[in-house]
Write a structure and sequence with these properties.
With 143 residues, this protein is of the alpha/beta class. It contains 3 helices and 5 strands, in the order E-H-E-H-E-H-E-E. It has helices at 26-37, 56-71, 83-91; strands spanning 13-17, 43-47, 75-79, 100-101, 138-142. It has a 5-stranded mixed sheet with strand order 4-3-2-1-5.
Length: 143
């Protein structure tokens, strides 16, 4: 007797706003990612607009989430990093792997790794200053 394959519930988009992204908060943030990956999202967008720091451990977690998303046919994207974080992402070549979007530019074509200028960059006229906040990962599910 063959068991019919059970249909899995999928969520088209999960947005995560991260305000702290370093080693000290990775267990909590990793648990949030585990829970959201269980939803089998087609797309996960991590909003970094309120994040002031990212370290190597956080970059490792992003790569791990990216690999899990690729295995299930999903896409992980980053949104609105401040200029400092954008430079860190470029130095780590993460912008070559993940799409990085900003509020003041059209999203790059997936797979190009193009990093658009970050909003609030003092070298770019007409960009809004960044707000800063500390807190914990917040998850918003939009269907």
């Amino acid at each position: 007797m063959t068991n019919p394959r059970r249909a899995e519930c999928t969520v088209p988009l999960v947005e995560v706003a991260i305000t702290e992204f370093e080693l000290a908060c990775l267990p909590e943030t990793g648990a949030v990612f585990d829970r959201l990956l269980a939803l089998h999202p087609a797309r996960v967008v991590i909003d970094l607009s309120g994040c002031r720091h990212i370290d190597a451990a956080a970059i490792g977690l992003l790569l791990d989430v990216h690999r899990q998303m690729v295995r299930t046919g999903g896409v992980l994207a980053l949104r609105d990093p401040n200029p400092r974080i954008a430079r860190i992402l470029q130095a780590a070549r993460l912008d070559q792997i993940l799409p990085v979007h900003t509020d003041n530019a059209a999203p790059p074509t997936p797979g190009t790794g193009a990093l658009a200028p970050a909003a609030g960059d003092p070298e770019l006229p007409g960009t809004a200053p960044r707000r800063s906040a500390y807190g914990h990962a917040a998850v918003t599910v939009r269907t």
